[in-house]
């Protein structure tokens, strides 16, 4: 396959940027890394408070939205000597989760979810939760972070739940110069494609309403938007991008292979 030969591919990821770049290079492409995920900052004091409140209070559901969040709460509990108590209590309560990394964390700790999002999205998770929990609208421990947390809390409250919001970490804004350079590369159509590996990267790119139209126009004409999975793809589509490429298997390698095939459909 030589579909990527000579193609310039922007990479908005941070942690996985090196591995994606190597895959692009191996297929003849030219990677350009613009990490716009933003720095993850752990809220140690918040974690301690959240774990303590969870252990003391009564909840009807525990909703875990990210593997990072679940792991961060557990690590903090370990630091303060409450890890076993946390896992023991979680083992006896209904868990609603989204994401493969969250599921991996549950399995590591011998836990099983009562409800899991089929497609990895929060909308699907909530749909399934409401189907299972038709009549009982009790108290929910909601682990989220500083994107959509207010929306998620409000969504549940409007449906009769009482919500305890846990935000064990936040993502700070990306480096402004890096973000602006990527925007300029896109709007001037100097790239053939841009790879996104998280919803956060998409939200950061489209954070300035004044630049929104130009970015969408570029993606809908000259630059291909590429997503690693359904959640990221859905966010790109919600911004107004008509053609979003994503692999059938939500893996980095599969994504780059799918991109290579896109540019060489006869391979």
Automatic annotation (TrEMBL):
One of its GO terms (molecular function) is uroporphyrinogen-III synthase activity. GO terms for biological process: uroporphyrinogen III biosynthetic process. Residues 20-256 form the Tetrapyrrole biosynthesis uroporphyrinogen III synthase domain. InterPro entries: 4pyrrol_syn_uPrphyn_synt_sf, 4pyrrol_synth_uPrphyn_synth, UROS/Hem4. CDD domains: HemD. It holds the Pfam family HEM4. NCBIfam families: PRK05928.2-1. This is Uroporphyrinogen-III synthase. The lineage of its organism: Bacteria, Bacillati, Bacillota, Bacilli, Bacillales.
């Amino acid at each position: 396959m030589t579909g990527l030969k000579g193609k310039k591919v922007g990479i908005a990821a941070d942690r996985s940027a090196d591995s994606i770049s190597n895959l692009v290079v191996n297929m003849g492409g030219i990677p350009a890394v613009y990490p716009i995920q933003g720095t993850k900052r752990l809220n140690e004091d918040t974690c301690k408070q959240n774990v303590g409140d969870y252990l003391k209070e009564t909840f009807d559901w525990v909703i875990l939205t990210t593997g990072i969040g679940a792991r961060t709460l557990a690590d903090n509990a370990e630091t303060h000597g409450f890890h076993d108590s946390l896992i023991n209590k979680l083992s006896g309560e209904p868990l609603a989760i989204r994401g493969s990394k969250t599921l991996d964390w549950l399995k590591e700790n011998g836990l099983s979810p009562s409800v899991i999002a089929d497609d990895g999205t929060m909308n699907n998770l909530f749909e399934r939760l409401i189907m299972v929990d038709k009549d009982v609208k009790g108290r929910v421990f909601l682990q989220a972070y500083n994107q959509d947390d207010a929306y998620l809390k409000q969504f549940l409250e409007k449906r009769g739940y009482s919500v305890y919001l846990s935000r064990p970490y936040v993502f700070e804004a990306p480096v402004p110069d890096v973000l602006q350079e990527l925007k300029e590369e896109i709007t001037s159509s100097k790239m053939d494609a841009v790879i996104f590996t998280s919803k956060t990267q998409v939200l950061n790119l489209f954070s300035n309403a004044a630049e929104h139209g130009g970015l969408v126009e570029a993606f809908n004409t000259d630059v291909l938007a590429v997503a690693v999975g359904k959640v990221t793809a859905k966010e790109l589509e919600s911004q107004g991008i008509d053609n979003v490429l994503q692999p059938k298997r939500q893996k980095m390698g599969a994504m780059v292979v799918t991109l290579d095939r896109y540019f060489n459909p006869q391979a």
